[in-house]
Amino acid sequence: MWDASPYDVQIHTTLNREEALKDADFVTTQFRVGQLDARVKDERIPFSYSLLGQETNGAGGMFKTFRTIPVILEIVADMKRLCPDAWLINFTNPSGMVTEAVLRYGQWEKVIGLCNVPVVAKMEEAETLGVPQTDLIYKFAGVNHFHWHKVADKKGHDLTPQLIDKLYEENSGLPKNIFDVPFYREQLQQMNMIPCGYHRYYYRAEEMLKHGLTEYATEGTHAQQVKVIEHELFELYKDPDLDYKPKQLEQRGGAYYSDAACETIASIYANKNTEIVVSTRNNGAVPDLPADCAVEVTAYVGGAGARNVAFGPLSTAERGWLQMMKSMELLTIEAAITGDYGTALQAFISNPLVPSGETATRVMHELLIAHKAYLPQFADTIARLEKEGITIKDEVVRKM
Amino acid sequence: MWDASPYDVQIHTTLNREEALKDADFVTTQFRVGQLDARVKDERIPFSYSLLGQETNGAGGMFKTFRTIPVILEIVADMKRLCPDAWLINFTNPSGMVTEAVLRYGQWEKVIGLCNVPVVAKMEEAETLGVPQTDLIYKFAGVNHFHWHKVADKKGHDLTPQLIDKLYEENSGLPKNIFDVPFYREQLQQMNMIPCGYHRYYYRAEEMLKHGLTEYATEGTHAQQVKVIEHELFELYKDPDLDYKPKQLEQRGGAYYSDAACETIASIYANKNTEIVVSTRNNGAVPDLPADCAVEVTAYVGGAGARNVAFGPLSTAERGWLQMMKSMELLTIEAAITGDYGTALQAFISNPLVPSGETATRVMHELLIAHKAYLPQFADTIARLEKEGITIKDEVVRKM
Amino acid sequence: MWDASPYDVQIHTTLNREEALKDADFVTTQFRVGQLDARVKDERIPFSYSLLGQETNGAGGMFKTFRTIPVILEIVADMKRLCPDAWLINFTNPSGMVTEAVLRYGQWEKVIGLCNVPVVAKMEEAETLGVPQTDLIYKFAGVNHFHWHKVADKKGHDLTPQLIDKLYEENSGLPKNIFDVPFYREQLQQMNMIPCGYHRYYYRAEEMLKHGLTEYATEGTHAQQVKVIEHELFELYKDPDLDYKPKQLEQRGGAYYSDAACETIASIYANKNTEIVVSTRNNGAVPDLPADCAVEVTAYVGGAGARNVAFGPLSTAERGWLQMMKSMELLTIEAAITGDYGTALQAFISNPLVPSGETATRVMHELLIAHKAYLPQFADTIARLEKEGITIKDEVVRKM
Amino acid sequence: MWDASPYDVQIHTTLNREEALKDADFVTTQFRVGQLDARVKDERIPFSYSLLGQETNGAGGMFKTFRTIPVILEIVADMKRLCPDAWLINFTNPSGMVTEAVLRYGQWEKVIGLCNVPVVAKMEEAETLGVPQTDLIYKFAGVNHFHWHKVADKKGHDLTPQLIDKLYEENSGLPKNIFDVPFYREQLQQMNMIPCGYHRYYYRAEEMLKHGLTEYATEGTHAQQVKVIEHELFELYKDPDLDYKPKQLEQRGGAYYSDAACETIASIYANKNTEIVVSTRNNGAVPDLPADCAVEVTAYVGGAGARNVAFGPLSTAERGWLQMMKSMELLTIEAAITGDYGTALQAFISNPLVPSGETATRVMHELLIAHKAYLPQFADTIARLEKEGITIKDEVVRKM
């Protein structure tokens, strides 16, 4: 593909991390510990108990964190040795929690977390409003997959109310991999902000769960669908002469990821001060959260990294939600690092998408067992659960 | 009863509020707008859709607030005129939100909210630990029906871990009107605090809902059970010679309310600086919440009211929960005052016990219609819903 | 001058404020209530008692605020009527307090305060470091005339330590109208930031006072020197054929003010997102100050105004200073609006450049009397002081 | 004296710290590193340059901290080994900074700092108001030697305005060792609080300095006066039959220290919950300062130590002052521990009683040299200064 492109680029590939990191200027990370099979488990085990299973939200999302944080911290440890001047540009989900862990536990400042949700939202909303994106002024605040934004015209007049109106006429700028259930219009009017697509899990929990359960019961969960597409893609990729993006790629989700990555790297490299929505250290940009935690905000990205735009205090409803979510994130990360059972339980119970009680605890136990190979920090707990005879209910997962 | 008591007290009764308030030193408020029938609706309508219906938590609790806040603010307005030096000692549930509304919207500083939950917890825990209560040092922080506490011996050594252990041996100090489901031991150990009984709704949501639904389907919800007891009590009260507390009173819930009230009043009157857990303006006692909001904390109560004991920052999990709950409280109160539909929706969606979506919205609509007589602030919305033909599903409520 | 310039610009002049404001898109304000004679008094009266007299700092600066705030608020009131969509671009000193007053008491959001101090600092430091300014990344935080900044190269490497070293080799980027006394090198190293020139008044109070007293005793205070230059300039300006900036203008101070103004206006007008250091609502950019107060920070200025770069928490020393200064600013503005004597006293005593006691109070009294014509809000106090026979000591001022 | 007292108490004396600490329940510390001669230097060296020299304020107070902090941290280290359950009750000045250092750097929670200033203020104000102290409700907030309080009657009515009025009729409750200069009445009315006696150094800086300079020039500074009294006292103490407090003791300053100590110890020992004003960890009681720093506030002292009364936010002027003072305290402690010259300079420049510049720096240098024996942490700096030939100007000190 590079040969067919107009760019003169040298590609070096390796499966040796040390070799890859040595003297790097930029390190981009996009990995899935346990690959799509692990994601299948993250999705199916909760759904088998009628709880939400999803990659970054609900019970499944927490286990993705448990598997990912130890690995990203190993990478950071290697970077300190092998490329201490490099920037870490991370897409690995949950992108916000990964950034938080890198800052807080990795003690590594040169990190930027990226996500395509704001990219797509901006593009689609410009289309919805019928103006070029460059004529709009956006301001985002929140954490990854849980942020809101406001939009103004280039004179600074707030277009948010108008955009809310339009959203109820037309397609709502929904990320491709989220089932299309509308937000409550009066809720959006009260907040006078646009939530991100993932807010549907919180603002329309019932419908999002129902949709997931239907998929679970029929064509398979999202990971299972993606597996099929990926299989096709990998077959195509076997052809060394393939020099264009296969059409299946669009169905895959994650569009514009590479654009966001390249733009961020180019902005840092050439000190371009491009406006990008990134996960980064707060520094006060969202004053309702501690200054030292990770947030996802509009920033001007240049040679010194992200310069966050100070958003100012959120309104009552959004403030409460965000503080709860950050607490859940911090607990999840702490559990991922310590492997403490009580902390994992607190994280689970704090997750607004996981109704507390025996079912949730059972799901947590099954997920611990299912992901045993990738959760050495929980070895003692898993051993105890196995001794207690906990087994996995979902047939598909059991066979994996 | 007073004649039979050793106290020389003059009782004056009136149904005229102005007469009652005139020149009062202390005003105690314990009322239920719409009486127990309204509570039946608060409980049954959510349960009819398998959502939690409860007096102070979940969907029902929010409607109790919607009905109560306008009335308490009227009382405060009257107090400003008729007894501007009086103290308002409130038991009306939700006691914390009433205190918040009186401080924030009533601009009335001389208010103390009371609840018997901390009173009972202290008594039962002393028994559990096998020491007199005076040998224990308690420190509470949170908001009404959502607080935690720590307990130490009189040398200041933390007994919380030991108490947690004991709770799993013996009776757990559970308020009488909450179904007995244990907290997760490892969760309590992680927080190293004792939650209040109402935390079961949040930490064991599944079981608490299940229990409520069982009652709903069989002997009737709590309000219905209380109605039976109250009927018996009122029959007994018809006898002017009755000079002792009837035994049914103990089944009623709300034990030690009068003790708490008298102790608070006596402490203010005689500047006794008694240690009481009260709802009061924060002033920094719980630094994770704004200094101007209402909290429920250990305080020394004397002539100048409550002098809150500064608790210090909460841990991650408790901080997130508390911030979310305060946000929900503030939204509920705002909706109670403005009657704004969008704000009510935001409050509902922020409530951790109300999974967002069509069912929750339907429940909110039915409750609006069911409580029409007591919700003049929502008149426009109710008219719209009636026009849309929203009717109440629960048969029992429909007949009320 | 415009005719000689390559720009096609129409100039309309008027002394009628309503006419000037009508339908404006941008309003720039640069005025001096009481003109330079008032500044002479601000400077000479404090110096006559060996206290610092200066335009924006010390006793004199506070009186400039007392005279200016009521007028700027009148202008804002007129703008609400005559040009409600306009932006107010203010240079009037004290630029930070004017911005604070416009936001807080004028309830006017579309305001940006400008100052040439950061402009000059950036230019001179680029020269000191021997690199083009575009190769440097600056980050400012503080309040007007009391801010610090850090500088990095375009790879984000902190150059602050290196710049500190250079400052002790070469010219220190000092604003032209401040006497050249060096900062303590070890102090700068400890903070690892560059203070602004006005910090000399606080970090080298003794020398700055001594220098002012020498000028007071010899060639006259700064205002007196400027009066001479202005007289020459106004003589030159009488010539309608004068089509270049006279060389005297450079000695006047305030260089690059017009550049900053034009750049700001152009950036807002064309939504250019230019990086400019401005006085603006904090919104969390400086987390050590309330989110709703005015700060002076690096911002990206575009159609929606200033988008502040979140600076993050300051270190201990800078945090304390800044909090003290903001407190002094708020008290000064409050006194300017209420005319309350006790508040003025608190402001004076809070000013780190005004040692409290009888001399400071005497200076405050003399300044109240000297500026009587411009301080209607203090009329009662001034009448009382006149009755007490307070007279002005400084001979020059007495004759004005 | 104990034999003549009605109490049956065993006294054991030792100069061996380990022996004294072994298995202690309470450790009280009241020491002066370098004894009164060091205090003479703290006072005389600043005065020799017309700067304030005082034990806890100004330049001298900072050096008392530099000498004291390392020693108190050694004591804490010993306590961890020898009496890990003991309480440290500290009177050593500066009592607030010692408490801060013990909490922050000693990691020792069981510490209470005491001071007689609030004790005396309460006593004298009760007398001023003509009511028994038990009929008054006090609320203190601030840091040691820099706190304010409010007073109410036992019905909670604010008596502060009335007390302010009385203070201008009668004796003002001034600590014995502070020269009697009145606060500005309008300042007190604006704050509606009572400052502590030491606030005179900040609110009447000019007069306090003048008074100190007069003493310096005539009968000698306070330390010199105390040395004379102490000499007399020690002569008397040589008599083993002396069984009463000599009258000279009253002139010594520090009255009621022993009462405060005994009351605190008894309250902790018997879990009495006595109301005492103490230096303790903030925990939110003064929300304008970080929750983890030391403050001086009203607290209920019992078996678990100090339970601080949450004061709530301060007003603008007091907030700014307090934040500045806490910053200065933190810098002074940090310099005391690290011996870093730049940090010491920042602390000095942050001190509102030390006008920055060459004189202040010179004073700092002379004090470093004068206290060489007690400042091992500054050894390198002192060596450098000695090499530069810095000598002490004050003749009296030079001869010591």
Automatic annotation (TrEMBL), chains A, B, C, D:
Gene3D superfamilies: Lactate dehydrogenase/glycoside hydrolase, family 4, C-terminal, NAD(P)-binding Rossmann-like Domain. Residues 140-354 form the Glycosyl hydrolase family 4 C-terminal domain. It comes from the Bacteria. Binds 1 NAD(+) per subunit. The keyword Heme does not apply. Its cofactor is NAD(+). The keyword Isomerase does not apply. Pfam families: Glyco_hydro_4, Glyco_hydro_4C. Keywords: Glycosidase, Hydrolase, Manganese, Metal-binding, NAD. InterPro entries: GlycHydrolase_4_CS, Glyco_hydro_4, Glyco_hydro_4_C, Lactate_DH/Glyco_Ohase_4_C, NAD(P)-bd_dom_sf. Belongs to the glycosyl hydrolase 4 family. PANTHER family: 6-PHOSPHO-BETA-GLUCOSIDASE, 6-PHOSPHO-BETA-GLUCOSIDASE-RELATED. This is 6-phospho-beta-glucosidase. It comes from Latilactobacillus curvatus (Lactobacillus curvatus).
